[in-house]
């Protein structure tokens, strides 16, 4: 960690002196090994130490346009260095991935309001890598990796983001000219939202309805050039621009795009899945949802992003809570560190546990995605629905928790948490954006619920179930009897499983009852609230189940002292979860008031133990000061000095008297109204 060289606040030092496990060992786990930590530090320093980035400039005070221009300038500095480093490292694809993974953190420090090239290196490149045939790969990938072209992923339209089957952009094929003609037939068919589209990129993957031989063949991806390679002027028929100010992501350059008779060559339709013969004959893919593959990959990646945002927010909140003193607990004693207030522990400690469990889930899901993708490459698509359901469910649950936790962290920092310099606003804006992009969270939960209902029917009919939903058998096997609660970690898991299965049953029954008077679709809509609750509970089941399995493995491989910390974290996660979901649990589990009181007491005991480890865990997340970028969360804990120094940098403080005094205030004060 590049620690601040200033003297560490004595309260924080005192906390660190009490840490009873090896922080470095935790860091090595979080990043996947000592070698990876070394790489991370090297890469981080390699980029952040570059004076050309001019990181001294606080971009939050710039205008919208200046912010964008500075973000582009900084990104180019970074990407030039990226290619230099890539060559130095050996130039392999793995080296590139390593640098990109580490840039996830570093880019946030360089462009806190978003990266104007993020879609080029993520959805654009991934779609071309995964949805093209060999010829197309050979044509496009070198140009993408050399950045000779820059691209984005243009799917969402003004009228439709969720229900992509009804996208309106058309691509009509003419076998005589061997060209597609792209059109935006209505205002609502304008592409709207794609990141980096407004003024940055010159190409896009465009999702459009394919028309050939007089028939519509559904949405297909096309590579479309949007701007001239020399002048960057929009090409004929292209109406393009920036969508304007947003809640966050100010420098991501989200854009709009309309087409008027834009010609695209035959070879630009991505042909790995669906195929169009030159004569216009359409050949269906093995599974129509293969064209949704890029979204699945990004949803999987979003779990680690959520874990990191929570890790960052809790680092800020905890370090601040260990140096801020307020409100004596005993009237005659000195004011304690605010962390001594148990409610403050309740705000921050469960968040730290979530970051760890989400990281376990991210690792698990990444491996599952890899193995299901490998099966897919051999033509076996059987597990695609399972991966889709799981990634939708966890994308929703983890980003919802993320936004909630980051906001609680902001609240836990009181007034100072509301300052931009506290560093929580950009984290929150990114968290809340993630609840919407890559599939709105309610919609994602409903997709997961479809899988749950199907699995429930399968279980009722004595069919087979995938591992993650086998608990539905237990529910059916109990035949209406409630699960008996036992206060162990596996007992908590069984209780959450019973709640998830019970809620699935309620949703299923709701649909079955309504089906008598309505279509299945209407009945399903009427059961929507139950369905989303069931999917949410299922997400928590997955998190706890994977958390238990992964943390048991970790405990076997780390020192006993760190093992105890992991055990504590897992229990914190589990007890916090069951207490938060107690209403659902009571409905389906035989749990007494005494059991609940015991759980509440257990939480207090867990807090007591975690009180000494917490600072070690957040230090172990290993966010350097430039990455944490927070007056309240810096390693040295000198929050008051940081706050006043940051305030002095406000543009208003660069002069004693602002011109508005003479222009408006003084005449107003002298006017006697
Ligand atoms: C320190 C901190 C660091 C933090 C760093 C932060 C960095 C941030 C970086 C930012 C990164 C990126 C920038 C943002 C990028 C954002 C990009 C976007 O948002 S792109 C646009 C995304 N759009 C969506 O997600 C659209 C959502 N809609 C859908 O996905 C679909 O329409 C639908 C799945 C909801 C429905 O599809 P539809 O075709 O209508 O399906 P049906 O309802 O007819 O059928 C459902 C049926 O299909 C199966 N299905 C659906 N999808 C899949 C799939 N992908 N794989 C397999 N199967 C699928 C589903 O299971 C159903 O099956 P049934 O058997 O019928 O039940
Ligand atoms: C920051 C950001 C970046 C983005 N980047 C990109 C990008 O790079 N490329 C791109 O193509 N798109 C991008 N998007 C678009 C994004 O993917 C969509 O906004 C998102 O998928 C939600 O779709 P929508 O806007 O149509 O919402 P809507 O579907 O209109 O949602 C509105 C409300 O309707 C509800 N609703 C809709 N359908 C259903 C249903 N079936 N059942 C129950 N409730 C329903 C939703 O739950 C929600 O409450 C971005 C969006 C944001 C915010």
UniProtKB/TrEMBL annotation:
Required cofactor(s): FAD
Residues in Acyl-CoA oxidase C-terminal domain copies: 489-670
Short name of one Pfam family: Acyl-CoA_ox_N
Flavoprotein listed as a keyword: yes
Entry's Gene Ontology cellular component terms: peroxisome
Protein name as it appears in the record: Acyl-coenzyme A oxidase
Coiled coil: none
Pathway: Lipid metabolism; peroxisomal fatty acid beta-oxidation
């Amino acid at each position: 960690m590049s620690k601040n060289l200033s003297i560490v606040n004595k309260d924080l030092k005192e906390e660190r002196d009490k840490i009873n496990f090896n922080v470095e060992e935790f860091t090595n786990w979080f990043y996947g090994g000592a070698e990876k930590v070394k790489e991370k530090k090297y890469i981080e320093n390699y980029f952040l130490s570059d004076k050309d980035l001019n990181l001294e400039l606080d971009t939050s005070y710039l205008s919208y346009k200046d912010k964008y221009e500075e973000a582009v300038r900084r990104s180019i500095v970074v990407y030039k260095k990226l290619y230099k480093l890539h060559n130095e490292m050996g130039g392999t694809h793995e080296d590139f991935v390593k640098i990109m993974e580490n840039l996830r953190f570093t880019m946030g420090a360089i462009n806190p309001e978003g990266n104007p090239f993020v879609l080029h290196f993520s959805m654009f490149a991934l779609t071309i890598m995964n949805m093209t045939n060999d010829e197309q790969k050979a044509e496009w990938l070198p140009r993408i990796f050399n950045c000779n072209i820059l691209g984005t992923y243009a799917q969402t339209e003004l009228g439709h983001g969720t229900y992509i089957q009804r996208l309106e952009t058309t691509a009509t094929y003419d076998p005589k000219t061997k060209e597609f003609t792209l059109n935006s037939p209505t205002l609502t068919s304008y592409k709207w939202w794609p990141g980096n589209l407004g003024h940055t990129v010159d190409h896009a993957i465009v999702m459009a309805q394919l028309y050939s031989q007089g028939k519509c063949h559904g949405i297909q991806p096309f590579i479309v050039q949007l701007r001239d390679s020399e002048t960057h002027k929009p090409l004929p028929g292209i109406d393009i621009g920036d969508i304007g100010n947003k809640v966050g992501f100010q420098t991501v350059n989200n854009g709009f795009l309309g087409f008027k008779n834009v010609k695209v060559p035959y070879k630009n339709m991505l042909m790995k899945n669906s195929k169009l013969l030159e004569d216009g004959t359409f050949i269906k893919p093995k599974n129509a949802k293969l064209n949704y593959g890029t979204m699945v990959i990004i949803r999987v990646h979003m779990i680690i992003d959520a874990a990191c945002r929570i890790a960052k927010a809790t680092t800020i909140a905890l370090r601040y809570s260990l140096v801020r003193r307020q409100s004596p607990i005993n009237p005659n004693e000195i004011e304690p560190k605010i962390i001594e207030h148990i409610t403050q522990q309740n705000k921050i400690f469960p968040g730290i546990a979530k970051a760890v469990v989400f990281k376990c889930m991210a690792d698990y899901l990444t491996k599952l995605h890899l193995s299901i993708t490998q099966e897919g490459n051999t033509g076996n698509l059987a597990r695609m629905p399972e991966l889709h359901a799981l990634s939708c469910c966890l994308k929703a649950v983890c980003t919802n928790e993320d936004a909630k936790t980051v906001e609680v962290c902001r609240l836990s920092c009181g007034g100072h948490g509301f300052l931009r310099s506290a560093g929580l606003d950009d984290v929150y804006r990114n968290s809340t954006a993630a609840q919407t992009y890559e599939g709105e969270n309610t919609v994602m939960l409903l997709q997961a619920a479809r899988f749950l209902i199907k699995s429930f029917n399968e279980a009722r009919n004595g069919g087979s179930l995938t591992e993650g939903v086998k608990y539905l058998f237990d529910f059916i096997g109990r035949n209406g009897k409630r699960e008996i609660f036992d206060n162990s970690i596996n007992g908590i898991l069984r209780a959450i499983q019973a709640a998830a299965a019970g809620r699935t049953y309620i949703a299923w029954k709701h649909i079955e009852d309504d089906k008598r008077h309505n279509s299945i679709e209407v009945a399903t809509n009427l059961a929507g609230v139950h369905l989303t609750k069931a999917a949410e509970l299922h997400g928590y089941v997955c998190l706890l189940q994977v958390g238990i399995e992964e943390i048991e493995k970790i405990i076997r491989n780390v020192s006993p002292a760190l093992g105890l910390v992991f055990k504590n974290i897992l229990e914190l996660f589990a007890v916090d979860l069951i207490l938060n979901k107690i209403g659902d649990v009571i409905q389906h589990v035989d749990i007494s008031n005494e059991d609940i009181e015991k759980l509440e007491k257990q939480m207090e005991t867990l807090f007591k133990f975690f009180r000494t480890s917490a600072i070690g865990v957040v230090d172990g997340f290993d966010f350097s000061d430039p990455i944490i970028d927070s007056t309240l969360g810096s390693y040295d804990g000198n929050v008051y000095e940081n706050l006043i120094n940051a305030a002095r940098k406000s543009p208003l403080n660069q002069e004693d008297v602002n011109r508005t005094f003479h222009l408006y205030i003084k005449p107003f004060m002298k006017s006697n109204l």
